[in-house]
Structure to design on (176 residues):
């Protein structure tokens, strides 16, 4: 199993590398707009050049958080992900990360439950949601006691919360 630790660039750990096996660290960079120029807060950011641009520019600078699409790519780096964005009240970065998490869960939710894996693809019908369908191998495993009923109930609750994402939520940041 692989792990990804992800954050936005405010974490100030841009070049940190984890020592744990099968673990990666990545960050979604914040962006700073000065006049017509955009500075990306990553390993290539020249802080001196940024400061000079800010000093020379007469108009106000602005910043932008990572997009939903950028977060979505990071959530797919590993089997399991721990995400640490700026807090919800400070930046849109948190909201973009939360939306990306929901997108990834909506697409891959069944894989978030490792005990489902032996049964995925064994259902009678393609596209089985593993909720109440006849011929569902996951439901049969729950009935046979091979999957804990409480785990399946957790899956159903999560499935309900992500299946009702509105189309505008799916298109934030240009992910679809």
């Amino acid at each position: 199993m692989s792990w990804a630790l992800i954050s936005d660039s405010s974490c100030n750990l841009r070049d940190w590398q984890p020592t744990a096996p099968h673990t990666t660290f990545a960050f979604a960079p914040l962006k700073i707009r000065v006049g017509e120029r955009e500075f990306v807060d990553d390993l290539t950011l020249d802080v001196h050049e940024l400061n000079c641009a800010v000093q020379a520019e007469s108009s106000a600078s602005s910043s932008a958080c990572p997009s939903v699409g950028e977060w979505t790519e990071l959530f797919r780096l590993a089997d399991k992900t721990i995400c640490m964005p700026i807090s919800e009240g400070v930046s849109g970065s948190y909201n973009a990360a939360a939306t990306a998490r929901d997108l990834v869960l909506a697409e891959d939710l069944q894989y978030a439950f490792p005990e489902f894996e032996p049964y995925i693809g064994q259902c009678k019908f393609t596209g089985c949601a593993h909720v109440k369908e006849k011929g569902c191998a996951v439901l049969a495993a729950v009935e046979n006691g091979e999957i804990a009923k409480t785990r399946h109930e957790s899956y159903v609750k999560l499935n309900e919360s992500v299946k009702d994402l509105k189309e505008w939520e799916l298109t934030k940041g240009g992910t679809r």
Observations:
- The longest helix spans residues 92-108.
- DSSP finds six helices and six strands in the chain.
- Residues 170-176 have pLDDT under 50 and may be disordered.
- Residues 140 and 146 are 9 Å apart (CA to CA).
